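Record type: ASSEMBLY
Status: queued
Input:
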Amino acid sequence: MMTDDGSGGMTSLQDAAAVTGIGETRYVRGTEKSALRLTLEASLAAIGDAGLTPRDIDGVIVYASGAVVAEDLLTNFGSEDFRFSATTPMGGASPVAALQCAAMAVATGVATHVLIPLGRDGHSGARISRRVGAMRQFRVVSEFEAPVGANAPAQYYAPMARRHMALYGTTSEQFAEVAVTMRRHAGLNDNALMREPMTVADHHASRMIADPFRLLDCCLESDGGAAVVVSGAERARDMPQPPIWLSGMGVGHPDSPSAITQRPDMTRLGLAKAAPRAFEMAGVTHDDIDVAEIYDCFTYTVVCQLEDLGFCPKGEGGAFVEDGRIGLGGALPTNTHGGLLSQAHVVGLNHIVELVRQLRGDCGTRQVDGADVGLVTGYGDLGDGSIAIMHR
Amino acid sequence: MIRDDRPLPEPTAESQPYWEGLRAHRLVLQRCAACKTPRHYPRPMCAACFSLEDEWFEASGNGTVHSWTVSHHAFHRGFKTDTPYVLLTVDLADGVRMVAPLVELVDDDASRLSLGLPVVLEYDDVTDEITLPRFRIDG
Ligand SMILES: [Zn+2]
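Status: finished
Output:
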């Protein structure tokens, strides 16, 4: 339970909650299933993995930018009520931010088992440029930037990558290194969409989308669902799966959160503020991290987050990803499931599932040896960041 | 040009003077009436002193390139005929940034781009009501 760490009455969430269940659907491109059905399939898998039934779930955090609301889950579960219901509206940073929110709920006894589900028909339903226009957090750029031709995340984010390249000498070869590594990892995952081997030459030959982003710098749009269950520490010890402890969590908004254009330092994300909070809470250092699942909507986003996480100084993320450092067998195996780039896009809930699987030691041929401590990040909207550090 | 298909801004009470300025081929920006800190995009409060009083001033439109992207893919059908097009993020001399396209991309314009490259604002009358900003390389 929550403990007083003596720092002026602050209580710490360190190890006050654990991920006790994980679930995923098969990931596909092309489905007749609704986002709600995919959400329910993933939820049932996660709840079953936790040794629970849907009626045991008394809290839920749904995706604020998604199609499913808490009422849908109550109705389908036939539950009398949820004692806790929230959203964490940070775009792609939402699911990892939800881990912090869920930990707070179960640590305080407001809820016992919180479900974080996400299902989407990102391939078969409305595509990204149509979805963005409907989101309130894009209201400002919709008025001032969409009319001049910036209509999708690739176009909003590309200038961050271009400036990083111009200031620090970061190269397209380094971005390719990220894409090729994620693809190699996906080849070891039978629930990954893109498993054909990719070379740096394949990356360079892929068509330009929004310079410097080529097609193979961009994540997939896919259909599928994933879910996790978060439970309080005392309950977690008596559940069927080994608890994966949530030891440090943080969220952060970038400067000028509504418009990248106006950001004093375009190469610094909200994660730069969130990461120190999480490392401090967890009481670990970067050397302790055995595996990292880093939100990879674009290759550049991984490079930038490695810097903002503190694994290397600002500007050195490009060099950091070279020489196999982020591959299996490297110093920091990253996105061992293939990531959004090559596994599937379920807004990073697949990253959370993968980290838990790694820390349980259940990853088979892609298992990181001796994975005791790991981290997962989220990145969303115009630079929101979230992080969770976990251990077994 | 399939202009009718493009997303058009819907000016709000906050942003009306900016859009009216562009329509008159003037760059009119918002600043704090109390401490004079300029701000963009238009909004109700000064983040420096929390004043809710604002005023508008005419800016030069001169600036330098802060960053850019070249869009080869149109994510909105209204821009399909324009690809590839350059979107510049520009540090205006007046203390804020703007994003706007580079006027017509000719062959190696993209390779001329660099941080700090001087640019000048132009006005693109899209409809009777709406004028959008665009930049050309200075000189
Ligand atoms: Zn002021």
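Annotation: The longest helix of chain A spans residues 153-168.
Annotation: Chain A touches chain B at residues 128-129, 133, 140, 142-152, 154-155, 158-160, 162-163, 166-167, 207-213, 258-259, 261-262, 266 (CB under 8 Å).
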